[in-house]
Amino acid sequence: MIVAKRKPFPEIMESLEGYDKVLILGCGTCVAVCLAGGEKEVGLLSSQLAIAYELKEKSLEIGEATVERQCDREFLQEIRHQIKEYPVILSLACGVGVQFLAEAYPDKIVLPGVDTAFIGSNDDVGLWTERCRMCNQCYLALTGGVCPVTMCPKGLLNGPCSGMRNGRCEVGPDRTCAWVLIYERMKETGRLERVQTVLPPRDYSRSTTPAVLTHKAYRRRYSANE
Ligand code: SF4
Ligand code: SF4
Questions:
Q1: What is the pLDDT of residue 225?
Q2: What phi, psi does 81 have (nearest 5°)?
Q3: Is 139 near ligand 1, meaning CB less than 6 Å away?
Q4: How many angstroms does the Cα of residue 65 sit away from the middle of ligand 1?
Q5: Tell me, what's the pLDDT at 223?
Q6: How are beta strands 88-91 and 109-112 bridged, if at all?
Q7: Which residues of 78-99 are buried (b: 16+ CB within 10 A; e: fewer)?
Q8: Can you tell me the distance from the alpha carbon of 57 to that of 135, in angstroms, rounded to the nearest whole number?
Q9: Which of 15, 17, 47, 206 has its CA 20 to 30 A from that of 195?
Q10: Ligand 1 pocket mutation, candidates 147, 152, 182, criterion most atoms within 8 A of CB
Q11: H helices of the chain, where?
Q12: Ligand 1 contacts CB of residue 80 (under 6 A)
């Protein structure tokens, strides 16, 4: 899932400076799960803004709405009538949702209300960890299901580095070195000899942006755009 966190309140206040009417728009998928931008967080931010403006003796008309996904046109269409009423939309979706919203409603001022952090796992209540950097050449089959790009702070494909001490990472000594985890996982699954395979340098040409992916069944349909 995409993990995000709400922007600091002073930053949100600053971005709204000079406007008197805003729609706070939540997204019901990833950002709702990571407690940054779902329906509940829309309500909390709305109350916080209302109190802050009242204390400053200023006025801000605040609307609230949440769609299932802001990265999907059909869900953005559903709220077009409500959006029409507001010159400014404060989106609590990830960066994709914010951009998609701005594209769908070019006459609106679209502001981000969260910082998109990473793709990660939900490890415990209120705890998320990065798991994938979308390198577009997944190595997990060779590394026992431990991502060397993400779990090793240096992204080493042929670790460990010389800084590893007693199995701990030199960058974060509270963490086990990713390459120790890889070694143990490969050993447990009887594939230790594969750890000796030297991986070639990453092919960064596969990580150019913006990436575009077309499913093979739809290549003809989109070929005019390629
Ligand atoms: S190797 Fe790591 S960063 Fe690359 S795709 Fe696999 S999980 Fe993601
Ligand atoms: S100690 Fe291990 S995880 Fe840490 S930077 Fe070196 S190889 Fe990567």
A1: 53
A2: -70, -40
A3: yes
A4: 35
A5: 82
A6: parallel
A7: ebeeebeebebbbbbbbebbbb
A8: 49
A9: 206
A10: 147
A11: 9-15, 30-33, 39-55, 73-78, 80-84, 95-104, 148-151, 178-188, 219-222
A12: no
Domain ranges of the chain: 2-118, 133-226
Rounded mean pLDDT for each run of 10 residues along the chain, 226 residues in total = 98 98 98 97 98 97 98 94 97 97 97 98 95 96 96 96 97 97 97 92 91 91 70
Which ligand is closest to the CA of 180, given by its number?
Answer: 2
Q: Can you give the pLDDT at residue 224?
A: 60
- Is the CB of 151 within 6 Å of ligand 1? no
Pocket test for ligand 2, best of 150, 152, 185 (most atoms within 8 A of CB): 152
CATH architecture, range 2-118: 3-Layer(aba) Sandwich (3.40)
